[in-house]
Specification:
single chain; alpha+beta; Cytidine Deaminase, domain 2; 6 strands; elongated
């Protein structure tokens, strides 16, 4: 977990924590054992009930944190102080120690907790460039990508490519569709699970999605819930990056009608990696493809409730042997 030593560190960490540079946002960052826990971002509220602030505070409590940072990103003409005061009061009621409360606007920031004009001038302090910060260097060295410039860029990174709409490709994928009443259902499920492992092997060897037929087989077979659930638990800590790249690639080329399972898998991995914003945007894609897709609806409830990622990881690990036994005996 990231350790923060100054407001500069906090402002540098937030884009990495949520995946992009926020605008018109209220960000709440939990602090556990002097290191960053989770980060939550919501659109900057203008008129919300007091219990909504208590709900935000409850997520910090559920994370097991004893401290928190509050940062408001606002545009000119917006008065953030009522919101900051209400959220601070909710955190105090929940027993959370507020370590810092910052307002960012027009490329400058000021603290609501510092009253010393020598270090906290009324006009604010310029936000330093992200790429000059210690936090950015640590994240890059650890292999994390630089944050997206905006939420629009984040969404674009998992949007459908034009090739996903080609009729020949759609037909190729559709031939691997699994009907729930197929007589050879178990054989098709085994074929799908095996295809997932084979494609992960292709990624491990650096060939990626070169085998078009294998890619079509994986996407098509994912229409079966058992194959999807097998895929949900098929990666380990050691292979997580391989599967992360694989599901991201398949998400942007999956034809309409085949997006929801893959988007849900990608969302679950994003959530476990601490990329909450990306997880929710992936669920947007899943539900745009099928607004009643059960796994996407379940994940939305789990993510919104602030269920700890490690609890989700444990659930997935417990489910996987049962799915394997159901498919392979």
């Amino acid at each position: 977990m990231t350790t923060l030593t100054s407001p500069h560190d906090l402002l540098a960490a937030i884009p990495f924590l949520i995946g992009y540079h926020p605008e018109n946002s209220l960000v709440l960052v939990s602090l556990k054992d002097d290191a960053v826990g989770m980060a939550m971002r919501v659109d900057f509220p203008t008129d919300i009930a007091a219990e909504s602030y208590d709900l935000l505070a409850s997520h910090v409590t559920r994370d097991g944190a004893l401290g928190a940072f509050i940062v408001a990103y606002i545009s000119d003409g917006v008065d953030p102080e009522p919101v900051m005061i209400n959220l601070s009061a909710a955190l105090v009621r929940a027993g959370i120690d507020i370590k810092e409360s910052l307002i960012v606007s027009g490329g400058r920031f000021r603290s609501m907790m510092c009253t010393d004009p020598t270090c906290c001038p009324a006009e604010g302090t310029e936000v330093p460039p992200l790429d000059s910060s210690r936090i950015a260097a640590e994240h890059v060295i650890a292999g994390h990508p630089m944050p997206f410039a905006s939420v629009r860029d984040l969404i674009q990174s998992i949007s459908a490519l034009p090739s996903s709409h080609e009729s020949a490709w759609q037909d190729e994928v559709h031939q691997f569709w699994v009907s729930s009443d197929a007589e050879e259902i178990n054989e098709l499920q085994r074929d799908g699970a095996t295809a997932v492992i084979d494609l992960a092997g292709e990624y491990r060897e650096g060939r990626g999605a070169e085998d078009r037929e294998l890619v079509a087989r994986v996407i098509g077979r994912m229409s079966d819930i058992q194959v999807r659930d097998f895929s949900l638990g098929s990666h380990s800590d050691e292979s997580a990056d391989i599967y992360w790249s694989m599901w991201r690639d398949l998400l942007v080329i999956a034809p309409r009608g085949f997006v929801a399972p893959i988007a849900s898998l990608f969302a679950s991995m994003a959530y476990e990696r601490g990329e909450g914003a990306l997880a929710h945007k992936a669920l947007d894609r899943a539900l745009a493809d099928d607004d009643q897709y059960s796994l996407a609806l379940l994940l939305r409830r789990v993510f919104t409730a602030g269920w700890p990622p490690e609890s989700f990881t444990a659930m997935r690990a417990e489910l996987h042997p049962k799915v394997v036994a159901g498919i392979f005996g």
